[in-house]
Amino acid sequence: MEQNSGSFTQIVLRKLRKSPIGLISFSIILLAGLITIFAYFIASDKTQNANRQDLAIAYAPIGHKQLTLEIPLPNYTDSRSFNDYFFGKEIDSEHISISSYKINNDQLEYIPYLGNGLNGEPLKVNLKEWTKHNISLTSIEKDFVFDKTYILGTDSYGRDFFSRLVIGTRISFLIGFIAVFISLIVGVTLGAFAGYYKGKTDNIIMWFINVIWSIPTLLLVIAITLAIGKGFWQIFIAVGLTMWVEVARVVRGQFLSYREKEFVEAARALGFNDFNIIFKQIMPNIIAPVIVISAANFASAILVESGLSFLGIGAQPPTPSWGNIIKEHYSHIILGKQHLAIIPGLAIMILVLGFNIFGNTLRDLMDIKN
């Protein structure tokens, strides 16, 4: 008979390494986390929210290459700050799709690309637009006229679809973290008090839990959102305030079981106060089920946020999220641009599936009887 040795965490990690499906789901979650942190390192469009628009190349196909002319704006800077690397750079230059160009004396003449194979009349730009920013003539042709590749094409506004999709990962991933964090604070606290004190405290908290439980999650989130307003942080708070109920029920059940254990009776006999017994004696023993339910809530939060963004209540444009990307392009499923709606839908499905599978795997791994 195999004997498990080591701490509880070491046993779980050892079992996880032997679970291929658990490792795959964990890898998906880890990849999404890395993309969330380094989104602007990965994205092709490094401006805030990848919101650089060019209607001339709207709905460009996957892998489209376009000759592009970059003209500095008055606020142009040739460097990026620490904040720009993680939150995107303010648009400080204009990107123009062109068919060809030539430099004559102190002017750059180009033929603008109008889309669908059409070209416009030649236009001229004074080279001072570059030289006033200490950009040499050699650098103009080397760095400010280039072929720009759109890995997944462009959306209806001519924005880089790949970059929008990558940066949209942040909303879906962070909503899970913040919503789960809020649900743990509220759910664990109420569940612990209800299960430990029982009696009237338990009755009041359970009545409140049952009332919240009876309201459909989506309707409750919409109501909270309308009360506190639309926005990036508001949606995080709204989703978090609706996901604590299941946590509270699980924690309450665990506390009802553990409050009668011998080590709790011993703690009371030694004179430990209720706070010490709840948070230092019982709480460490219920971490496993709380972690498992948190993984499930993470997946639920992603789905709720995507649904709200699709309805226009979640993250507001131009902030990209997978939900509002689908909203902008779902009608194109029958118009020959299916990937604009299908790819973010697949991203949601894969990430949610990853969290659900990882939660189920954790449940099995944390069963020390196995």
Structural summary, described in words:
With 370 residues, the protein is of the alpha+beta class. The protein has two domains: 52-150, no CATH class; 161-365, MetI-like (MetI-like fold, Orthogonal Bundle), CATH 1.10.3720.10. It has helices at 8-17, 20-37, 39-42, 82-87, 128-131, 137-143, 161-197, 199-214, 217-228, 232-240, 244-258, 262-269, 274-282, 287-311, 322-329, 339-365, and strands at 64-72, 93-104, 107-115, 118-119, 123-126, 145-150. Strands 1, 2, 3, 4, 5 and 6 form a six-stranded antiparallel beta sheet that branches. A hairpin with a 2-residue loop joins β3 and β4. α2 (20-37) packs across α16 (339-365), α7 (161-197) packs parallel to α11 and α12 (262-269) packs antiparallel against α13 (274-282). The N and C termini lie close together (12 Å). The mean pLDDT is 88.
Briefly summarize what is shown:
By secondary structure, the protein is an alpha+beta fold. It has 16 helices and six strands. A hairpin with a 2-residue loop joins strand 2 (93-104) and strand 3.
Tag the structure with descriptive keywords:
single chain, 370 residues, alpha+beta, MetI-like fold, 2 domains, 6-stranded antiparallel sheet, 16 helices, ABC transporter permease
Layout of strands and helices, then pairs:
Elements: H1 8-17, H2 20-37, H3 39-42, E1 64-72, H4 82-87, E2 93-104, E3 107-115, E4 118-119, E5 123-126, H5 128-131, H6 137-143, E6 145-150, H7 161-197, H8 199-214, H9 217-228, H10 232-240, H11 244-258, H12 262-269, H13 274-282, H14 287-311, H15 322-329, H16 339-365
Antiparallel strand pairs: 1-2, 1-6, 2-3, 3-4, 3-5
Helix pairs in contact: 2-7, 2-16, 7-8, 7-10, 7-11, 7-14, 8-11, 9-10, 11-14, 12-13, 14-15, 14-16, 15-16
Keywords: Cell membrane, Membrane, Transmembrane, Transmembrane helix, Transport
Pfam family, one: OppC_N
Domain ABC transmembrane type-1: 169-359
